[in-house]
Amino acid sequence: MIQLKTMLNCIDNSGAALVECALVVGQKKHATIGDRFVAIVQKQRGASDAGMSTTSAANKVKRGDIRHAIVVRTKKRVQRPDGSVVRFDDNACVLVNKSGDPIGTRVNGVVGAELRRRKWSKILSMAPTFA
Q1: What percent of the chain has a predicted confidence (pLDDT) above 70?
Q2: Which residues are within 8 A (CB) of 107 and not within 5 positions of it... i.e. 6 or more apart?
Q3: How many helices (H) and strands (E) does the chain have?
Q4: Is-contact 36 25, C-beta < 8 A?
Q5: Residue 43 phi, psi (nearest 5)
Q6: What is the CA radius of gyration of the chain?
Q7: Which range is least confidently modeled, 48-57, 71-80, 88-97, 118-127?
Q8: What's the rounded Cα separation, in Å, for the pair 40 and 106?
Q9: 112 and 73 in contact (C-beta within 8 Å)?
Q10: Residue 116 half-sphere exposure, CB side, CA atoms within 13 Å?
Q11: Distance CA 64, CA 110 (A)
Q12: Measured distance CA(73)–CA(92) in Å, rounded
């Protein structure tokens, strides 16, 4: 269950490491696997604390950017139609643009199989495995 102010790991190579949920898109209170939300980038991947102003060309987003994201893993248990229950170790997301295309080109780590039912096949095809 992802709600306002929830911090999530960003598992794609868009340049964000940690994002904060600002708004769940739609008339929903909580987001679960496959839901879209508005995210604020809190921490950049590979950003040094020394205050270096140069950023890598691979970083497509920077700290403070507001982007849309899709939830791919949650700590809250999700029950599947066959009766099995799946639960992950962390909350994670993938950044997407307004049209729904992923910003990054690679996904690091496992994503939930619920993305298939929610029509996020582009994210599933980039992921190494899904559970």
Answers
A1: 91
A2: 11, 12, 72, 94, 123, 126, 127, 128
A3: 2, 7
A4: yes
A5: -145, 135
A6: 14
A7: 48-57
A8: 20
A9: yes
A10: 9
A11: 26
A12: 5
What CA–CA distance (Å, rounded) separates 1 from 88? Answer: 12
Report which secondary-structure segment, H or E, holds 123.
helix 121-126
Q: pLDDT-based confidence at 41, cuts 50/70/90? A: very high
In the three-class reduction of DSSP (H, G, I as helix; E, B as strand; rest coil), residue 121 is classed as helix
36 vs 51, higher pLDDT: 36
Residues 124 and 111 sit within 8 Å (Cβ to Cβ): yes
Q: Which residues are CB-contacts of 81 (< 8 A; sequence separation ≥ 6)?
A: none
Instruction: Quote helix, strand, coil % in the chain, to nearest 5.
Output: 10, 35, 55
The encoded tokens of residue 44 equal 């950049």
User: Averaged over 60-89, what is the pLDDT?
Assistant: 96
- Count the residues in the chain: 131
Tell me which DSSP letter residue 34 carries.
T
Question: C-alpha distances in angstroms, 57 versus 72, 79, 86?
Answer: 26, 40, 37
Amino acid at 66: I
State how far the Cα of 77 lies from the Cα of 69, in Å rounded to an integer: 20
